[in-house]
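Input sequence (131 aa), recorded before submission:
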Amino acid sequence: MGGFELKGSHLFLLAMVALLIAVLFLPQLRQFWLKLRSEEVTINRPGHQGLGSEGGGLDLRIITILGKDGIPSIDNPQFLKGEEADNQMLETERVIGVSINGDHRAYSLNMLSRHEIVNDTVGGVPVAVTW
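Predicted structure, token format:
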């Protein structure tokens, strides 16, 4: 048999070397990536003159992990009737309730944890439900 063949022990050794390299260099790669996505800002504290640490300002680095619209909103929510909701949700499941002009809605916190915002109209009033 010609060519290069990996035996079990060689494959294990290769996997261990790859794991070691990942453990050693992953933090540096992560820091490099985060630095590329960061922005330096200075915030002035009320009552202090000047910028930077000598003038009472606070120097910060803001890191954006998710880009614009990284977590999609729910823009046309679909609701279940009472009996359907009883069959799909736990009795102890938490919701955010909104009642406007006799129109009542319940937004599941489990769903909001994945989307964080629902744009809806309740009782003829536009609302943004966030979590």
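Checked by second reader. The beta strands are 38-44, 57-63, 95-100, 103-108, 117-122, 125-130.
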